[in-house]
Amino acid sequence: MTSGSRAASVPAVELKVSTRSHAGHTVVTIVGEIDLYTAPRLQAEFTRLLGQSQTMLVVLDMSAVEFCDSTGMNVLLSALKRLRERGGTLEVAAPRPAVRKILQVTGLDSVFVVHETMPEKLLTSESQG
């Protein structure tokens, strides 16, 4: 019967990733949950972003990220490493309490620059793009 297709059905958790670049910095807005199933989508976006631009500062808008597991944190660390190799940096902005707690428990809040909110300079530059 249809047992083969039913076995692969996992609750669909959507992850939306959008990017916008302005004068040497890129804001990556992430919406949803970052976990084992959705992390490859985020990894693919970082690969695309790093492959096509000379962006030196990437700021992750995590205000709409409800959950991030160790797989997601590994994707963020990998992107940070790749940016640092090019002289750039990756910053985290507006993490929700659950994500902030993961950053604190793992010690990654001292690895990433973490902003309570989206930096004002990035908000004002949006309209100039």
From TrEMBL:
Belongs to the anti-sigma-factor antagonist family. It comes from the Bacteria. This is Anti-sigma factor antagonist. Residues 15-125 form the STAS domain. Gene3D superfamilies: STAS domain. The gene is bldG_2. It holds the Pfam family STAS.
